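I'll show a record.
***
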Amino acid sequence: MIAPAYSAAMIPDTGLPAAGQSRARGWRVLHACEFARDVLPVAEGQVVVGMLPYIVTPHGAGAAELYLAGKDPGPSRPLTLLRSWQDVRNWRKAILDCAPETTADLVHAHSFAAGMAAVRSCACVVYDLQDCIDELALDSGQCNPGSWIGRSFRAAEQFVLSRAATVIVHSLGMKNAALERGAPPENIFLVPDPLLPEDEPVAAAGDVGVSGRETLTFFVPQPAALREKLAASSVLVLEAFAVARQAGTQARLLLETPTTLRSTLL
């Protein structure tokens, strides 16, 4: 059973004076996501700064503090196009059961199905675009290039992107994909994923012990799709890296891994 998202008693009273007798309070964010573990780092940061995150998944719901304290996040489920479309109705019920219009300031949707349900039911929706649903299905072999089902899901995601109040992307490639699918430029915000210490590139054996020389780093962002050609700016970066190496400059090249392949590198 989906529990109510918030109550008036959960709104913190800061005690600060405000005009019109209004009280300062933390933002109430309703996270609609497939897996609670995917949003826990964000929710933890929101709790620290006084926000009130609440997490809704296909397996249940609860305040973020419950999941941070070790509540079972539920089993993982493989993504399929058919289930994604069927889940829209389930997501709509799960979100509306939390009464977001009165208990949340915004709904943060972290999947296509949650986003579709949210933009059709809620006033203020943030859509987190991790992967384009049609490209994800194509990469996993669930549809063929140019198939009607792939085109249908692309059109459906265009609907979500054009109606969300804010679209969050995590790479330049996904920003371009959002623009191509009709998201208003002023509504797109690029929030890069944090670089963990273990993600730092390891120096090659030949570079160990080199001192007194700066290393130039060249970064190439991922394209919007695995089959898409590199942008002109990325080609220039690759050419500059080649020139630097030919000139004997100590340089390294970082290539952003597509999100659909990152799990295979762990």
About this structure: The longest strand covers residues 52-57. Confidence is low (pLDDT under 50) at residues 1-24, 201-212.
